[in-house]
Amino acid sequence: EAGVAQSPRYKIIEKRQSVAFWCNPISGHATLYWYQQILGQGPKLLIQFQNNGVVDDSQLPKDRFSAERLKGVDSTLKIQPAKLEDSAVYLCASSSLGGGGYNEQFFGPGTRLTVL
Amino acid sequence: DAKTTQPTSMDCAEGRAANLPCNHSTISGNEYVYWYRQIHSQGPQYIIHGLKNNETNEMASLIITEDRKSSTLILPHATLRDTAVYYCIVYTGTASKLTFGTGTRLQVTL
């Protein structure tokens, strides 16, 4: 079974530039997550999709971050314009609709963003 | 979701059992205990989860105290490949999010 794919793996941009990350979840997984992981911290959820719809985007800085999941499969996360504090690893994860408290999330390798 | 408290770091000799504690004294009756780990430069990986009973799988065992206020993840025979950050998370089991803390950095040494 193929895992969660992300690209690019690394990105270096200057502040105020734009950047986009792409995620392809595991086939058949209805739920897709984007996390931000700053160095030394645990991942923080930015947005959660279930199929095409947004379940939780309470921690997404909507003035500069946007995300979409077209056709309930692939997803893109965009930052426009980037700030220095956006330097982090951006992780994508997916999960199937489990019951009884089961929520195993499968994570991709992440995209390491450096904003100069 | 309830908060968890974990030691910042632990060491373990290769081949010995690694016992990673987690306190979750404010856990609610419907919250599960989840463990994930993150090896350097990789995304987190699910290990195990439980509600009340102890659980075991091919990776680890999870021991939850009777009052559910704490738990221990046990790696029975740690190897160098188990060096990672281990996250203990409590989760309601609905569509709500997993909230990661800073975890325990486990260093397995020869």
How would you explain this protein's 3D organization?
The complex is a heterodimer of chains A (116) and B (110). Chain A has no helices and eleven strands. Chain A has 116 residues and is mostly beta strands. In chain A, a hairpin with a 2-residue loop joins β5 and β6. Chain A is globular. Chain B is an all-beta fold and 110 residues long. Chain B has strands at 9-13, 18-23, 32-38, 45-50, 55-56, 61-64, 70-75, 84-91, 104-109. Chain B starts with 8 loop residues before the first strand and ends with a strand. At the A-B interface, β5 and β10 of A face β4 and β8 of B.
Q: What structural class do the secondary elements of chain A suggest?
A: mainly beta
Mean pLDDT of chain A: 93
Percent range of helical residues of chain B: under 10%
Report on the biggest sheet of chain A. 7 strands, mixed
Query: Biggest chain pair contact, residues each?
Result: A-B, 25 and 24 residues
What's the assembly state of these chains? heterodimer
Q: Beta-strand level of the residues of chain B, as a percent range?
A: over 45%
Number of strands of chain A: 11
**Number of contiguous helices of chain A:** 0
Mean pLDDT of chain B: 93
The strand order across the widest sheet of chain B is 1-9-8-3-4
The beta-strand count of chain B equals: 9
Residues in helix, % of chain A: under 10%
Shape of chain B: globular
Main beta-sheet strand count, sense and barrel state of chain B:
5 strands, mixed
Proportion of beta-strand residues of chain A: over 45%
Which H/E pattern describes the elements of chain A?
Answer: EEEEEEEEEEE
| Envelope shape of chain A | globular
- What's the N-to-C terminus distance of chain A? 37 Å
Cα Rg of chain A? 14 Å
Describe the structure using short key phrases.
heterodimer; A: 116 residues; mainly beta; 47% strand; globular; B: 110 residues; 5-stranded mixed beta sheet; 0% helix
Per-chain topology:
The complex is a heterodimer of chains A (116) and B (110).
Chain A: E1 5-7, E2 10-13, E3 19-24, E4 31-37, E5 44-50, E6 53-56, E7 65-68, E8 75-79, E9 88-95, E10 106-107, E11 111-115
Chain B: E1 9-13, E2 18-23, E3 32-38, E4 45-50, E5 55-56, E6 61-64, E7 70-75, E8 84-91, E9 104-109
Parallel strand pairs in B: 1-9
Antiparallel strand pairs in B: 2-7, 3-4, 3-8, 5-6, 6-7, 8-9
